[in-house]
Amino acid sequence: MLHRGNLRRVVGVSTIALLIAALMAFYVADIADAGPTRCQQHRLDARERAGIVTGEGERVLVIGDSWSVGLGQDDLSRSWAGRLPGEVHVSGYSGSGFSAGASGCGRVSFHDRARTALVVRPRLVVVAGGLNDYDQPARAIDSGFRNLMADLAGQSVVVVGPATAPLRAGAVPRVDDRLEVLAALYGVPYVRTSDLDLDYLDDRLHLTEDGHREFGDAVAERLADVTPARPAPLAR
Q1: Nearest to 64 by CA among 131, 110, 101, 100
Q2: What is the C-alpha R_g of the chain?
Q3: What is the DSSP letter of 232?
Q4: Does domain 38-223 have CATH number 3.40.50.720?
C-alpha cells in the first residue's frame, strides 16, 4: 500500500514521463515536417519550372512529367524541353502521366493541367510522357488520353512517347504501342523515343544532364519531320 508521499512521487514521475513523451512526439513531428513532402516538392518544382521560359520564336507548350521538369538536375532550365526551338513554356509535374492514377498526388494528370497551361496561348503543344503510366490499365490510359485531346481541341498537337528508362523498360513497349494507337485515332502525330540510348542517373529512371541534352536534341529533330495536327473528335 502506497503512502501519500510515495503516491505523490509516483504521480509526479508519471506526469514528467508523459510530458517527456509529448515533447518527443512534437520533436519527431517537427523533424518529419522540416522539409516538404514528396507531393509538396513536386508542386514546388513544377511552379519553378513553369516560371522558366527558354528560347525565342513561336510559342511552344510542353505538357509532361519529371523529365520535362528536370527532376534530378541542379538547374531545371536544362531539362530536355529547353532544347526545343521556339519560346518554350513547360507545364510539368513529377510522377504524372496520361492516366489519372499515374500519380498519387491528386489531380495532376496531363488532362488535369492542360486547360490551365494553355493560358500561355501556344502555337504548338508537345505532350511528352508515358513512363508513369507503366502500371496503369489500358482503359485508364485511354480515358486520360481522350480527355486530354478534348482539352486540346483546336490546338496544334504532337505526342512524344516514353524512352526506355531501365527501371521501367519492361512496361515501355505496351505503353508506347497504346499511345501510338490513340494518337492515330485522334489524328495527331506520334513521336517514338523508345529506341534512344540515353544516359541515366543512378535511379535508372531519370536523365543525367547529358541525357537531357541527348533526348531534347532527338525530340527536336524528330518534331521537325512531323506536321502538328489538331485532335479530331471521335464519335461516341
Answers
A1: 110
A2: 24
A3: P
A4: no
